[in-house]
């Protein structure tokens, strides 16, 4: 009897953990260059973030984000820091969830009570470009609002997906429709080579001198990606939004957040996008958002 009761308790505990860790499932119905329109509520964790330096001024900064549990949204540090290096006040940040259109409806924002960003964030190279917003009230999960999964590993990454409401090209306006683009993961060696190439181009250094040129490696907090065929990538306004892996189990995993690039989107075919790695901040995320769901890919 004791064995049966213990087994039952363990089974119930396992079921509760599973139920408490639902994440990354598509719904019912930070910049995208050469992207395609997303069907309604495909990514129910997508957050549209507006940051106001002054509430009396109608202008705001636009970013994306990802809901990782009932009260926390992951985004980029440069989305929550003003041009003079100051943190946006929590009361001046609005978070919109369950949205398809970015600019059609300004009602019912989720308020923010706390802003955390990496104190080592460097705006000159966007290293350590990561932030977490704490919502004032927990959200109720629905078919249109739900959290994304977080990855325990980064093994065997090839194709990833970026989604957001940013510019569709360097000279375009931000998209009202949520867009997505598939990108190819680049390992660090490939990413460092791409960085060297663009720096040489920007400084008119002949390519034959490449073996003699030494450039600072890409930050450990960053990963690189671009669609190698279409050159599709994130663009201005997509910052802080997700770069995701679609698992064989049908779940989506937040591999990182849109950070930036070395050029304007679409200006140079050799320039990849920079994305802050989720896994780099695993310990921080666990301490701030303990209910976030971590799973193996």
Short description:
This protein has 297 residues and is α+β, with helices and mostly antiparallel strands.
Question: What labels describe this entry?
Answer:
297 residues; alpha+beta; Thrombin, subunit H; 3 helices; 14% helix; disordered N terminus; Trypsin_dom; Peptidase S1 domain-containing protein; serine-type endopeptidase activity
Helix and strand topology:
Layout: H1 2-20, E1 36-37, E2 46-51, E3 61-67, E4 72-75, E5 93-97, E6 110-117, E7 131-135, E8 150-151, E9 159-164, E10 179-186, H2 188-202, E11 222-226, E12 242-246, E13 252-260, E14 273-277, H3 282-288, E15 294-295
Parallel strand pairs: 8-15
Antiparallel strand pairs: 1-10, 2-3, 2-5, 3-4, 4-7, 5-6, 6-7, 9-10, 9-12, 10-11, 11-14, 12-13, 13-14
Family: Belongs to the peptidase S1 family. CLIP subfamily.
Signal peptide: 1-20
Protein name: Peptidase S1 domain-containing protein
